[in-house]
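4.2 Preliminary Data

To establish feasibility before requesting continued support, the project team ran the inverse folding procedure on a target of 275 residues. The structure was first converted into the token representation described in Section 3, and no sequence information of any kind was made available to the design step. The complete token record follows.
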């Protein structure tokens, strides 16, 4: 059925309905109501945390599908985008509830899987001395950030729909759907926050390691700088250099460089400790 009997759908509404990625929307007209719910489908099925050791379980499969419905006074139609036709939901609001409930449950399972992936990354991070896969982090961050925006719009549309059907059949059930979608948004925000915390801690660890390396290089430079200065001084081809005519002149020059380096390093360490 490419049209609905006795219902004239506005051309712009029909265009929105046929759009496979149209944002969530709820609108009413004199003849019908339009409900479009767009939801993320991040992964196909839920993976056990042990399977995350395989790279295939990390493949990004993020999709964002729009599900469009036309509600008349007595009937509800679902627009099947594969067949480009309207399908009558014989069970009315019951079928609509079951359809959306299944999709939202799948979304909640996907978010549980995202939490498992983040937990796996955290475990590897603390076990492997601060190494994390930035490619995996970036993929998760991208999908969760996009999902957050999509879920917020879906919540607005579903809230308007639930408010319109106040005190009607299955009102409590649709309120539960709204609560589940709201919980999905909270889980998405929480997962995004965990990823941000992990990235900040990763940067702190990396910066700490870099600062230690710079500290060691500074100490080495402090040691060899006076030695290079002394070598350059005693290597000048001029007369009157210290220890030039002494039998053990090389030893005295070397001893002087060592003493000078020890004094300079001690002064630097004392300054660092005092500061």
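Position-by-position output of the design step:
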């Amino acid at each position: 059925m490419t049209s609905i009997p006795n219902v004239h759908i506005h051309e712009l509404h029909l265009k929105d309905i046929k759009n496979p990625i149209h944002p969530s929307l709820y609108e009413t007209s004199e003849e019908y109501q339009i409900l479009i719910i767009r939801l993320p489908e991040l992964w196909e099925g839920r993976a056990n945390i042990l399977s995350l050791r395989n790279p295939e379980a990390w493949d990004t499969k993020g999709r964002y599908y729009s599900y469009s419905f036309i509600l008349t006074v007595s009937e509800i139609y679902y627009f099947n985008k594969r067949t480009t036709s309207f399908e009558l939901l014989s069970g009315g609001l019951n079928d609509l509830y079951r359809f959306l409930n299944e999709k939202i449950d799948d979304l909640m399972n996907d978010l549980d899987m995202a939490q498992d992936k983040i937990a796996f990354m955290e475990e590897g991070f603390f076990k492997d001395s601060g190494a994390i896969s930035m490619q995996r982090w970036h993929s998760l961050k991208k999908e969760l950030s996009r999902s957050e925006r999509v879920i917020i719009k879906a919540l607005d549309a579903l809230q308007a729909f639930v408010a319109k059907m106040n005190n009607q059949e299955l009102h409590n059930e649709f309120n539960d759907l709204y609560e589940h979608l709201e919980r999905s948004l909270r889980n998405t925000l929480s997962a995004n926050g965990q990823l941000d915390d992990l990235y900040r801690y990763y940067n702190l660890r990396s910066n700490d390691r870099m600062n230690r390396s710079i500290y060691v290089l500074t100490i080495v430079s402090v040691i060899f700088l006076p030695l290079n200065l002394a070598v350059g001084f005693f290597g000048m081809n001029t007369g009157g250099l210290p220890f030039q005519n002494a039998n053990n002149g090389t030893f005295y020059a070397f001893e002087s460089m060592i003493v000078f380096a020890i004094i300079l390093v001690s002064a630097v360490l004392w300054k660092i400790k005092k500061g």
